[in-house]
Amino acid sequence: MNDARSDTPVPWPKLSPVQTGVRGRCPRCGEGRLFDGFLKLRDGCDRCGLSYAFADPADGPAFFVICFGCIPAVVFALLLELWAAPPVWVHFVTSLPFLLVTCVLPLRPLKGWLVCSQYFYKAREGRIVGTWRPYGDAGPEVSSAPHPW
Questions:
Q1: What are the tens digits of pLDDT across the range 10-25?
Q2: CA distance 74 to 80
């Protein structure tokens, strides 16, 4: 983004991944939309033009929902069944909505948070660039090849 009065680029503010991701906003400008639909990521920001090609949250949102949403919901349904043995319609009225609320609703904010965290922390696929020098240029070289033993 350039200032209208000069050709010097205006630096983007550092925005928290939690604030932008949970609201579904662009991780760079905080104004553009992140999603096109419920969980589908847009191709890029409609305000600042940032491409979302870097974003790959993979199964992260589903993992967090399973661990922190599904397990308590299923435990609730099982305990309700063991303690009260209600008819099936009671589970449809209590357990099913609880399961939907704890499993479906958190998916979008979690996916947004993970995508914005990838941008904020410049996450990318790991790669070996060359020789590792843990002690600087004056220290010994450490080869990335496996040891012979």
A1: 688 889 999 999 999 9
A2: 10
